[in-house]
Every structure is written in C-alpha cells, then in structure tokens.
Amino acid sequence: MKVKGRNAGRPAFSGKQFWGKITEFPAPARLAIIMALVNLLPGPALADGGFSSPDRLGAGLTFGHSYDSPPTFGFFQINGLLQYDYDDIWPHPAPELLFFKVEGSLGVADYEEGIRLFSSANILAQYYLAEASVRWRPYVEAGIGLIYSDFQVEDQGLRLNFNPQAGVGCDFMSGGGIIWYGNFRIHHLSNGNLHDDNRGIDSVLIQIGRYF
Question: Among residues 58, 152, 44, which one has the least CA distance to residue 103?
Fold first, then answer.
C-alpha cells in the first residue's frame, strides 16, 4: 500500500525520537507520566500474600510500535489492571493457575509527526506456567477489548476498534517483597468488518509494572 502524506519515504519512527516528543506533551499529560513513574518506584507492596494473593491491583507503563499498515508509529501508555482468580468471576470450573485480568490503558501515539490519543480497555485470561515460587512466575495471556485511536490509517474505517492481543510474561518478586510484572504482546486493531473499510494495525508492545 502506498504511503501518503508526510510519512511518504519516511523511515520508521525510532524510540529515541518518540521519547523526544514527551517534552511536547501538554502539562497534564506530563504530570500523569511523572505520577506513573513515581508509582513504579520501590515501596511497600499492598498485595497481601505476595504471589499467592488471588486479587491484586497493578499499574505500569506500555511501550509499543506498529509494524503493519504504514505509516508505522510508536506509542506510550499508562496502564492499570485488576487481577482476579478466574473462579471468582466466571461460575464454572477452571484450572487453579488460571486468572482473569481487567486492564485499562491511557496514552498517546506519535502518528505523522503529531501526538494523538491512543487508549484502550481490555479483558484477558492469564494462565501461570508455574506454581507460586520464591521469585519468578511466568505466564501466558490472551484477550480482547476496545481501543480508540485519534487517527486512522488509510482504509481503516473507524477510530473505535476491537483490540485482540496475546503474549507471554512473568511476575517477579524483588528482595524487598515488591511484586513486578513484565510482558511482551502481539497487539491487533481492527473493526471486525463493522465498516466496509477494515484495514487493521498490527503492533508489538512491552509492558512493565508492579502490583500494589
């Protein structure tokens, strides 16, 4: 597909360039970023029971970049999550290591040299690959939700789209008892043919954060 506009012939947006854009954010957005970073600093963990706690609150940061549907773009989000034992949410038998996660993300994308809103809300099934251990607990996860982008690539059709994604991750307990998480996901955006134009966007992202 031919790339139109200012991105014609423009190389993929680099992480260094994207971080340079942070200084261009409005003051409220910069304050939100600073608050999120402060929340990630070491401090007391509020999730009683550590890895064995079935219900937890988490907060973190997402760094991503699209690789399909040019022009490609980078994005940054602040995300929060609620994690529950799967049996507590859905009234049917489930594996002991299966959890349910509700996640919301608020952020921006650098699209055609402009900062645009890029936010989502998702639900995910999260399956741990090991029992609670001393420090590490890997998992796989997959889910779907809705995502809003304040821009459209050519033939995208809608700005509010479905947001299926899947990935792998790991929880990590630091020496101070703080539980961190990190994951890598494949991220998709499309309208499920609710519009005649349904050009999707595929991305990869890294998410890091901690539980409280």
Answer: 58
